[in-house]
């Protein structure tokens, strides 16, 4: 059983950590890499749009995947 609240909080603290908690290591590393690239894009201003979107998407995805894992 995965705690969906914990998965969301872990992704809140560090993007991709909730996916790793859910057992999706590749997806979590992908989120971490994408978040790092998005952070670097802040120097060209586009990162101010992509970074919050990616951060929120990571939290929602971690929560939904944990819920789905618990239903199985």
- The proportion of residues in beta strands is under 5%
pLDDT < 50 runs, ≥5 residues: none
Number of strands: 0
- What structural class do the secondary elements suggest? mainly alpha
* Spatial extent as radius of gyration: 12 Å
Please state the average pLDDT score.
Answer: 95
Q: How many structural domains are formed by the residues?
A: 1
Helix content: over 70%
Shape: elongated
User: How many strands, what sense, and barrel or not for the largest sheet?
Assistant: none
Report the span from N to C terminus.
9 Å
Spell out the helices and strands N to C. HHHH
Can you count the helices? Answer: 4
Organism: Aquibacillus halophilus
Protein name: NINE protein
Keywords: Membrane, Transmembrane, Transmembrane helix
Task: Walk me through the structure.
This protein is mostly helical. The chain has one domain (4-71). It is built from four helices and no strands. 26% of the residues are buried.
Short note summarizing the structure:
This protein is mostly helical.
């Amino acid at each position: 059983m995965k705690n969906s609240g914990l998965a969301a909080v872990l992704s809140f603290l560090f993007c991709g950590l909730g996916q790793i908690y859910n057992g999706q290591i590749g997806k979590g590393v992908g989120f971490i890499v994408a978040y790092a690239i998005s952070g670097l894009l802040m120097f060209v201003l586009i990162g101010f749009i992509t970074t919050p979107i990616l951060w929120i998407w990571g939290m929602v995805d971690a929560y939904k995947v944990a819920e789905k894992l618990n239903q199985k």
